[in-house]
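ingest -> fold -> write
write: protein_1
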Amino acid sequence: MKLSIISDQISDRPEKAFPKIREAGYEYTELHNIYDKTIEQLDEAETAHVKKLLADNGLKAASLATTVYFVCPLYPNDHVTGFNEAFHVTEGDRTVHLRRLERACQIAAELEAPVIRLFPFRFPDNRKPPFGGEADMETIVSVMKEASDIAAPYDVTLAVENCPYSHLPKGEMTLELIRRTDRPNVRLLYDPANSYRAVKENVPERYLSWDLKKEVKELAPYIAHVHVKNYHYDPSVQPKPFVHVAAGRGDISYEELLPELEALGYTGALSLEPEVGPEETMESMKWMYDRFR
């Protein structure tokens, strides 16, 4: 498996991030925030500059972590908002996001990135949970088919992330989406930690029975990319009791999950998204390098 880290976990200035990533022994990086933009917003000159910096530092792009369909209403009357000013996003309706997706495909071709991350639509502020029921699923399937058509000429894989802020936070839910979309260029971005911390009240009851070991076993043939981060559940911390910790020190036993995933045939990237401070980010990088290189 290929070791990677989302570069803005170190700095959104690639001049700062890329040398540190290479010094840590990593050969791949995932690109999200670059120069106060999300990756799909880069122009041609900025893309060429990033390409040169990758080459200068001996790095390859594992994935483009776009925000396509994140802050995007699934239905015209949905009201959705961002949640973190530092997490730059594409806003607008589906038409805007489709245009950004095509730009992302062009950037992926330039940077030779094999995977583009998509979201299954942020859940709205003005509808009550649960989300991801039959009507939602059918609508998202139709949108992913549109996205598949856009991406097809570019020879890139679209990877849908099970995001806890979306309609489909659990791995089982995104697996059903991929199966129903039934396009070879639409696959999974599996984030075990996102599945672990999904708010149960937001999820239809029929998707609450699988643990992470079951998800790995069932999802493995469909996974194009993996995010690695960790949480420790602390009920005394409210309103968000899932606390970010260094990747090797949380509740999720990656030492069990990742070898099983590899044994099932996964050969793609393990991409760190630690979401912790600088010291714990470097700790997470060393932990993953020591155990999974």
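write: protein_2
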Amino acid sequence: MSARQSRIRIGSAPDSWGVWFADDPSQAPASRFLDEVATAGYEWIEIGPYGYLPTDAGELSDELEKRGLKVSAGTVFSALHRPGSWDDVWRQVTYVADLTRAMGGQHIVVIPDLYRDHKTGADIESRHLGDEQWDRLATGTDELGRRIMDEYGLKVQFHSHADSHVGYQEDIERFLAATNPDHVNLCLDTGHVAYYGGDNLDLVRRFGERIGYLHLKQVDPGIVARVEAEDLTFPQAVRLGVMVEPPHGVPDLAPLLAAVEDLGTDIFAIVEQDMYPCPPDKPLPIARRTHTYLSTCGGAAVEIGTPKIPTNTSL
């Protein structure tokens, strides 16, 4: 056990408002998300899909300041196991990292590309990586982390994901064993780990030094069982309600946060409840209840913020 407790800063993200894309008429407008995430009581947010929030640093800074919000991270999508993918990934980095740094963010969350088509459910490549592909993924992500730190001063946190090659706990452990902690660590997404039957608490206890960021989610075990039995895609699972409002799913977040407190490292824990698409009035009540619930989890190390009333917003 560490001699000091972690500082756990709780936040939320556009994902918890049903936002998956930069521009989609079925999603809540950016102004509504910003107003409501502040109203729910959160202080920290992620940028979400690049282009959903204003991409001009000055404009976004103004909108955040009006609502008392701060940025913890930006997100980049990668397919570094594929030959010739570097330029596309770095192209994203140049604008996502630039905006994240300008907003005072500290992290880039890297999400691996998926092996199946979200619309048809058909596999677009093998579900399993060969040794050469694993090596390309590991060395590529290490290089990505090194360059992002050198050029932007941001830390890379790799995010395991449903329907990707790094989803099951054994995949996560293999990835951690193959990568350099000086360059890349793990965004532990509790929902995506539980989606594939992984043990989040075990990962925290055995690999705590590699966990640099958290996404807090819970899943419905009954829906997960159906997803597995019918081989449903992740978007289909989300539409069925696989990601549920805490504390109604798994894993139990209270002991998880308690274990993170014992790591002795400062960390962001961003609430994400995938709900794409969802009715516009659904996210805020859930966000408020989740904020209230999480305020009862953990000890003094958990910093969750207080509800605010946005003023003079212009988006």
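write: annotation protein_2
The chain has a mean pLDDT of 95.
Residues 158 and 177 are 13 Å apart (CA to CA).
pipeline exit 0
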